[in-house]
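Q: I have 372 residues here and want to know how they pack in 3D. Can you give me a structure?
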Amino acid sequence: MMTLAPWTEQWQHFTSDVREQFWGDLTQHTRQSWQDFLSRMSVEARDRYLGVREYERSPERTDARNGFYEREFVTRLGTLRVRVARTRQRAFLPAGLGRLERRTAEVLVLIREAFLRGLSTRAVGRVVALITAEPVSAQTVSRLTRDLDQAVAQFHQAPLADDWRYLFLDGVSLRVRRPSGRKRVHLLVVYGVRADGTRQLLAFTRSTGESQAAWEGLLHDLYRRGLEGRQLQLIVTDGCAGLAAALQTVYPRVAHQRCWVHKLRNLLSGARRRDHAAMKADAQAIYQAASRAEAEHAARTFGHRWRGAYPVLVTRLLRDLPDLLAFFQCPRGLWRTLRTTNVIERCFVEVRRRTRPMVCFVNVPSVERIIY
């Protein structure tokens, strides 16, 4: 077996070299064929314009040939260097090549998708160069991604169908690089789920905080765009007081569910560390109960055990209990999903993963592009 190893290794190198040479030659021949084809198209377009071919004369023509210039065009095959025919008055780009366009639509999509999926602007340039042999600068990548601004504007104004069954609302903060230093941009986010399980980010807006006025502005915008709430069954929030008040203004008839993750975090933050494990287990017994009646019994048990040590925490928990148990009115299979705002948190995990290579957003419009 050991005597065969060198031959096996040599065979692998041989096949690898043949494969690389074959595809390299094929790509080169294909690229050259396209360059020749596009150049011929340019010459034929010039001849049709002049009405005569090269070395022919005509007293009726008003223009004359003026040689060629080379134009580089980046494609999936690499960079094509096309000879563009011209006259003294105009040039003749082959059909399909825009006057100022240097890259095919496929290459532009590759640049944009690579950027949006987590590569930094510099890394995008290196990846595109591997495919097209044409380096792309970080500035070019940033400029091309700005084309998303129009799509973002359309997203904010798009009509909404009134077929959403559950809404999740939460505030999210992201870092932005400003001239005065790094700061945080606060976002109000609305995520929707239909009865068939399809889900979508419905709206987001920048805000200085989670006041009632800020949330009312976003909710009124949802209503104006068509989400009147006729089929809404439950709205899940993080427990923000301003948001709860805004819901009573815009969607007063829809049940309100407070997020148990946020509530549990608030409970533990007010308790001594040695009590965290026991208090967490008692709180989990409430929302993991098999029915609302069992959950209310578990809440009373929680109160009896912890009222002496933490009377304020227990009072707040029992006061908020109706909103904490609203998810029990929904189908059992959805209880785990509807008792927290984790769907929004999971959505923004991807946003934060994307922004990690760039440390923070360069400006506020870039925040909206990435989220969109």
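Q: Anything worth noting?
A: The chain has a mean pLDDT of 81. The first strand starts at residue 65 and ends at 75.
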